Amino acid sequence: MEDDAILAESLKEYLESEGYSVDAVVRGEEVFDLTFEKSYDLYIFDINVPDINGFEVLKELKGADDTTPTIYISALVDIASINSGFEAGAIDYLKKPFDPQELLIRIRHHLSKDIDENIKYADIVYNPKSGKVQKGDEIFYLAQLQKNIFDRLILNIGEIVSADELMEFMEHPSQNALRVSMSKLKKRLGIDIKNIRGQGYTIEKI
């Protein structure tokens, strides 16, 4: 997201030449249209853009459980703005003007961290840091409760995780609420999570 159309297009062309697939928008509202239709590995946001500024865009995405890593690029170089960027949930903040090569280095760094931390199970690739789950060509970003439950189960494959332990993640814990959450998670990811009566839940080894 960059309201300088020339800079946006040049960055798009540069990153595509490095093998990345890129969508570019100039207005804050356009981000919501695109993210409704697609999932992304990384966002690069300017701050002073039309409709809704970059801080508010990221806050709204985070409020909708979108945990996609975000880098800000901005001419706002004061400490208060940089602090606001990180408070909004960004993983990096690059001051304008900048060398596109520096942006590329930061992109590679952040995306490589995701790759290093991936957990693979059957046709699922899960990144505990971002909460991103990839199943085939489809990408999911789990809401916090689902992420916590799935994270605990997949990090303990072949072991039973007690219902009490899983309910600790819930604001209003109950066996029924846990069953509903588990059913939604199984349906969304198409994964077999077994209920061991009187003990808890497990993802079996394959």
TL;DR?
The protein is α+β, with helices and mostly antiparallel strands and 206 residues long. Helices cover 44% and strands 17% of the residues. The relative contact order is 0.09.
List the helices and strands and how they pair.
Layout: H1 5-17, H2 28-37, E1 43-45, H3 54-63, E2 70-74, H4 79-88, E3 92-95, H5 100-116, E4 119-121, E5 124-127, E6 132-135, E7 138-141, H6 144-154, E8 161-162, H7 163-167, H8 175-189, E9 194-196, E10 200-202
Give a structural overview.
- The chain has about 210 residues and is α+β, with helices and mostly antiparallel strands.
- It has two domains: about 5-115, Response regulator (Rossmann fold); about 120-200, Arc Repressor Mutant, subunit A (Orthogonal Bundle), CATH 1.10.10.10.
- Helices cover about 45% and strands about 15% of the residues.
- It is built from eight helices and ten strands.
- It has helices at about 5-15, 30-35, 55-65, 80-90, 100-115, 145-155, 165, 175-190; strands spanning about 45, 70-75, 90-95, 120, 125, 130-135, 140, 160, 195, 200.
- A four-stranded antiparallel β-sheet has the order 4-5-6-7, with no helix packed on it. It has a three-stranded parallel β-sheet with strand order 1-2-3, with helices on both faces.
- β2 (about 70-75), α4 (about 80-90) and β3 (about 90-95) form a beta-alpha-beta unit.
- The radius of gyration is 19 Å and the shape is elongated.
